[in-house]
Specification:
Elements: E1 11-14, E2 17-23, E3 28-31, H1 39-44, E4 49-52, H2 65-74, E5 78-81, H3 91-95, E6 104-107, H4 112-121, H5 128-137, H6 146-155
Parallel strand pairs: 3-6, 4-5, 4-6
Antiparallel strand pairs: 1-2, 2-3
C-alpha cells in the first residue's frame, strides 16, 4: 500500500533563493508562485518537473504559466499546466497531478492547493494516515480531508 517512500516533510530555504518550498515526499514538493528567476535554481536542485496549479487569471503578468513553461523548457525541466481554482476538485485535475518526474515541484498561491491535489493523487498508494502526516509535516494540517482521501483511494485502486 505504501509504494511511495515518505519521510517527514521539511521547509527548505536556500541562501539567495527566496522561494520557499515544502517537501511532501522524497520526490514531490510544493511551493507558492514560482518566478522565472527561480527556474535555474530549481534545475540546479535536481527538479525534473514543474506542475502549475494556479489558474492564469491569478498570476501577475510576469508570472503567467506560459512564461514559466517557456523558462522551464529552456532549462530542460518538464512543465505541466494543471490549473486548480480550489473549489473544483475533479478526477481529471487529480490524475494530472501525477507525473513521471524524478523530482517534482507543484505550485499555486501558497502551496496548499498543490498539496491537496497531491494528497488525492496518491490516495490508495500511501495510507491516509501517512498522507495526512506528510501534509501536516509540510505545514498543511488537513485532518478534515481524511474521510474523502480514504474514500477516493478505495475507489481509485
Amino acid at each position: 500500500m505504501d509504494s511511495i517512500k515518505t519521510e517527514p516533510a521539511k521547509i527548505f530555504r536556500n541562501i539567495g533563493f527566496f522561494m520557499e518550498y515544502r517537501k511532501l515526499t522524497t520526490s514531490f514538493f510544493v511551493s507558492s508562485q514560482i518566478k522565472i528567476t527561480d527556474i535555474k535554481v530549481l534545475k540546479s536542485l535536481g527538479f525534473t518537473d514543474i506542475i502549475c496549479n494556479r489558474p492564469p487569471n491569478e498570476s501577475s503578468t510576469d508570472e503567467k504559466p506560459d512564461l514559466i513553461s517557456k523558462a522551464a523548457n529552456q532549462n530542460g525541466i518538464n512543465f505541466h499546466n494543471n490549473p486548480f481554482p480550489g473549489n473544483q476538485l475533479s478526477t481529471e485535475s487529480i490524475s494530472r497531478q501525477k507525473v513521471d518526474g524524478t523530482k517534482t515541484i507543484a505550485y499555486c498561491t501558497s502551496g496548499a492547493r498543490s498539496a491537496i491535489l497531491w494528497a488525492f493523487s496518491v490516495a490508495g498508494d500511501i495510507t491516509t494516515e501517512n498522507i495526512l502526516q506528510c501534509l501536516s509535516d509540510a505545514g498543511f494540517p488537513m485532518p478534515h480531508l481524511a474521510d474523502q482521501i480514504e474514500a477516493f483511494g478505495q475507489i481509485n485502486t
